[in-house]
């Protein structure tokens, strides 16, 4: 690596410039100048051009931060490239590190000269330069301290999470739900009825509305449970039954503030307790209904099982009866087959005997005919006549 300039691409817009300086950590001391750049079509990211005081420091920064996530909760990682030269198209008077060529340039925050010897410098999108340490102190907003120009890209328009309209939107300060006003489709008010989240921010006017009091409020804080609550102008002491005003001279500032926080914490805890008890009651009712429904289904299935078992027994008995009937029919069929075969055998025997008897009759008939045609002697006439009579008999 022979370059002292590195370019960090794809810095997410939710990471402010002061947070990016904190992200650099100890390497911020080795950075002489930071230049914030943004592409024409980059709507949710910006780029940072960093000039280090030496090439080894730039190489160490690249080695440690390349591929490192910007935060533990984000998926975006730091992508670093080395830069040899930067040229600007169009305006030739634009310089890469503007304060270095101005002898009278000074930081508008601390009014000190903008020199590398006094610390690292940063030039924002509007071309105003400051000390990195001075800009890191301006953590309340991400605007230029001199011209109030927004440094991070503007995000897309908010929409109602239910109906998708863009006008009259309110954002819940507890969970971030965005819904339309009660003059549109009342989705923000319906969110309050479902979740009991009291405070909602109007995105157009940046005013906070309290649904329980049905009025705007102007002072909010986080209690010990991390819940957003309103800080009232007085504190009720439930045990003493008296009201302690904020401007009461008998109490010190710390005591009055402690009493305020005790009241706010107890009030918020009571509200949350009521809310979660109601949720538990609803869950118990729902669980009982589900249990009854499951018991009914179980009884119905058990009755169906009993009916099916009875039907199976009936079918089993019918199967046994059919098997017995099949066996008897099979035996009868076997007997019929045996009788038919025996009948066929006798029939063939009778036909054979008939043919044999027919042949014998034909032979006897032929012999009788030949005897009648033979000449007879007188001496044997009587005998032949007797024989004929015997044959006729």
Mind sketching the topology for me?
Blueprint: E1 5-12, H1 17-24, E2 31-37, E3 45-52, H2 55-65, E4 79-83, E5 121-123, E6 129-131, H3 132-137, E7 169-172, E8 178-180, H4 187-195, E9 199-202, E10 208-210, E11 215-217, E12 220-222, E13 228-230, E14 234-237, E15 242-245, H5 253-372, H6 381-392
Parallel strand pairs: 2-5
Antiparallel strand pairs: 1-3, 1-4, 2-3, 5-6, 7-8, 7-9, 9-10, 10-11, 12-13, 14-15
Q: What can you see in these coordinates?
A:
The protein is built from 6 helices and 15 strands. The chain is α+β, with helices and mostly antiparallel strands. Strand 7 and strand 8 (178-180) form a beta hairpin. It starts with a strand and ends with a helix.
Brief overview, please?
The protein has six helices and 15 strands.
Instruction: Report the end-to-end length measured between terminal Cα atoms.
Output: 151 Å
Strand order of the largest sheet: 4-1-3-2-5-6
Count every beta strand, where a strand is a DSSP E run of 2 or more residues: 15
| Tally of contiguous helical segments | 6
β-strand percent reads 15-25%
Give the biggest sheet.
6 strands, mixed
Mean pLDDT across all amino acids: 76
- Sequence stretches where pLDDT stays below 50 over 5 or more residues: 233-251
Query: How would you spell out the order of helices and strands?
Result: EHEEHEEEHEEHEEEEEEEHH
Rounded to an integer in angstroms, the radius of gyration calculated over CA atoms is 56 Å
Give me the secondary-structure category. alpha+beta
Q: Shape from CA axes?
A: elongated
